[in-house]
Specification:
With 160 residues, the chain is mainly alpha-helical. It is 81% helix and 0% strand.
């Protein structure tokens, strides 16, 4: 029940942020008259980043309750948000093209890899080195062979 209450509170805050961003965008458009330069952070970007953080946190908590790593839930939440563009949500496409969001995404990838590196235990890795090596090699070789096979199927004269 507590998760449901906090989720609804977060959604209400997100809705309020979206409404204020819409109002600020409309006010900026009226005040600029189409000729003025825009300064500062676009409110839609702020709302989008807030939505990403909320979705990541909620999905991370849900996955932890399912006894899975929170990072897996956060990644699945990002996949769900990214798929909204395929469903016709135009704001997602705007966020994908924004330089601020791209910079934050790059920083997020660096932090994620750093965090994974901190949680790695060399002793545990050495215990499973054979299966780790097999998965790593298969993760490179299998997609390469599948790509070559698809290319030879669709471009028979080009692949040698």
């Amino acid at each position: 029940m507590r998760l449901k209450l906090s989720a609804s509170s977060l959604l209400a805050c997100l809705a309020a942020l979206a409404a204020s961003a819409h109002a600020a965008r409309a006010e900026t458009a009226q005040g600029a008259g189409g000729g003025g330069a825009s300064h500062g952070l676009d409110p839609l970007v702020l709302v989008g980043v807030a939505a990403m953080l909320v979705v990541a946190k909620l999905c991370g908590e849900a996955f932890e309750r399912l006894r899975q790593p929170a990072v897996l839930g956060e990644l699945c939440g990002g996949i769900l948000l990214g798929a909204l563009g395929l469903a016709g949500v135009g704001a997602i496409e705007t966020l994908k093209a924004d330089a601020t969001v791209n910079a934050l995404a790059e920083i997020g990838v660096i932090i994620l890899l750093f965090e994974v590196g901190l949680e790695s235990n060399l002793g545990e890795l050495l215990e499973v080195w054979r299966s780790s090596l097999l998965v790593a090699v298969a993760g490179v070789v299998v997609p390469f062979l599948l790509g070559w096979g698809v290319a030879s199927l669709f471009l028979p004269g080009e692949v040698r």
